[in-house]
Amino acid sequence: MGQTSSNVARKVTKSVSSLFNSTSEQTEVDGVGRFAVTPYVFKRTSSMYFDEDGDLAHEFYIEVKDGHQYIMKRSTENLTPQGEVEYSHPRFSVDFPTVICRAPYS
Fold first, then answer.
1. H or E stretch including 85?
2. Which of 34, 46, 87, 100 could be bridged to 82 by S-S, CB 3.0 to 4.6 A?
3. Other Cβ atoms closer than 10 A to 75
4. Domains of the chain: which residue ranges?
5. How far is CA 46 from CA 52, 61, 93, in A?
6. DSSP characters over 12-77
7. Distance (Å, rounded) from C-alpha 34 to C-alpha 15?
8. Per-residue 3-state assignment (H helix, E strand, C coil) for 22-33
């Protein structure tokens, strides 16, 4: 168990130090043969779209006349994805192998 926590601590310190070391790129390989990468995620792909008017939303609807009534129909034309959005603060990657909180024993 002590070796596992040492390995996790080594990964965290190596990845955090690689954040602040701007001269070396992340192509450096440590002694084990793995890349030194950060456990943090700074951006995500957005699920929102822009329409032709420049409005931003998850879905767009248009009003269509169907006989004597009007119905709302989902619009999928002329929409462009928002792209990548930066987080307000970094988050841990889902692939980062560590326990953040340990439950107490009963």
1. strand 84-92
2. 46
3. 14
4. 1-38, 41-94
5. 18, 19, 17
6. HHHHHHHHH--SS-TT-B-TTS-B---SEEEEEE---EE-TT--EES-EEEEEEETTEEEEEEE-S
7. 11
8. CCCCCCCECCCC
Name which residue leads in pLDDT, 27 or 82.
Answer: 82
Would you state the pLDDT for residue 48?
96
Q: Three-class SS of residue 92?
A: strand
Q: Is the pLDDT of residue 19 over 90?
A: no
Tokens of 2: 């002590």
Burial (CB count <10 Å: 0-12, 13-18, 19+), residue 94: exposed
Q: Which residues pair with 63 in a beta bridge?
A: 72
Residues 19 and 62: their CA atoms lie apart, in Å, by: 47
Express each pLDDT in 37-63 by its tens digit. Answer: 778 899 999 999 999 999 999 999 999
